[in-house]
Design a protein that fits this description.
Strand order of the largest sheet: 3-4-6-5
Main location: cytoplasm
CATH topology of the largest domain: Topoisomerase I, Chain A, domain 4
Radius of gyration: 22 Å
Oligomer: single chain
Number of domains: 2
CATH superfamily of the largest domain: Ribosome-recycling factor
Number of strands: 6
Order of helices and strands: HEEEEHEEHH
Helix content: 55-70%
CATH class of the largest domain: Mainly Alpha
Shape: elongated
Distance between the termini: 52 Å
Family: Belongs to the RRF family.
Pfam family, one: RRF
Keywords: Cytoplasm, Protein biosynthesis
Function: Responsible for the release of ribosomes from messenger RNA at the termination of protein biosynthesis. May increase the efficiency of translation by recycling ribosomes from one round of translation to another.
Amino acid sequence: MTIADIKKTAETKMDQSITAFKNNLQKIRTGRANPALLDTVQVEYYGSMVPLSQVANVALIDSRTISVQPWEKGMGAKIEKAIRESDLGLNPASMGDLIRVPMPPMSEERRKEMTKLARNEGESAKIAVRNLRRDANESVKKLVKDKLASEDDQKRAEAEVQKFTDRHIAEIDVLVAGKEQEIMAV
């Protein structure tokens, strides 16, 4: 493995960490309805647990209501039960074939809890990025030790990996700040 490969791998993995972090941020509840909120809900379907999106169509009715349209007639009650038993604090209401999931307004205390959760997710993402930096630097040091690269190459590679790290951490900070603003907006 060359220094260029190490740098490319580190940057790719850092990008993947950012993508995973964005997905985690989507699951944090704000005052608004978001279909991605129900991605974690599992429904029992013919004896096995499957994601809600595989047994129903999930969409927005308005900014505070999610609609869930089961693809099979008998699934409505099971979907309703799965949403109610999830740890999201939602109370679905059945209207014939359609299940409406109204988003309860969030209290100030709950909003602060959600911002803390967003910050914790951000910190976890930063730790993941820093670990990738450490791994890349260790790989470069090993190349120098094995005499496959010079110490000057090592210094340049470490400086570039640090630039990737700084850029990704700044992006995480921006995403956290944006999510906090979204949560605190009434």
